[in-house]
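User: Quick sanity check before I run a bigger batch. Here is a single chain. Can you write out its predicted 3D structure?
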Amino acid sequence: MDLGIAGKTAIVCASSKGLGHGCAEALAAEGVHLIVNARSAGPLAEAAQDLRGRFGVTVTDVACDVTTPEGQAQVLEAGQGADILVTNAGGPPPGLWSDWDREDFIKALDANMLTPIALMKGCMPGMIDKGWGRVVNITSQSVKAPIPQLGLSNSARTGLTGYVAGTARQVAQHGVNINNLLPGIHATDRANALDGPVAEAKGISLEDARKLREATIPTRSYGTAEDFGAACAYLCSQQARFIVGQNLLLDGGGTNFTI
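Assistant: Done. Predicted structure follows.
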């Protein structure tokens, strides 16, 4: 299916690897020009060159920490006039309620709530002027089913979800659609970070810890960055014009919800 977005331009954050890279790859395959971002310049430049070579699109790489005001300014400057925004930032560390103090929550809010909001505010006026835009925020399944050891992430991402719920209904009349993608467990570095403590606590290998988690997922497998990217590209498509303010789970059926 032709998604109708060839020639458009997208900012994709944290896209040198993992879910962000999956989104950048899927958009590039549709002919979308990219502004890609990550903190490490070397891996980002390699990823950008790979996307240029395979898909023949323009790829601008911006190495910075997008969770800082300075980084946000760099990305927005490089992506002036962007039609598509995909926000993404690594999740805060797991732990117990007793592990976190105010500063930990401030860091989580900065990365996983306030950064996406700042980027949306930077991009959406231009989208509104053009009468077309797509925003996809990568959040987490935890906004529907909070995960006990991810209290920092639960809090920050749920705040972003509330912001999007209201904002999406305000800008949809201008042809700008905002939606959230909620990953369950995918085969990325984040999965290793979550499986590692389980392996250590149980005295088993990382591979065995993964098998234990896979057994709890109806598909009996982790998702892939390619799975995730395909869903992102669809939400950015012309065909998704009537999807507004939604929270789409990509979790292999692992979160048992009727809504």
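The chain has a mean pLDDT of 95.

User: Great, the batch can go ahead then.
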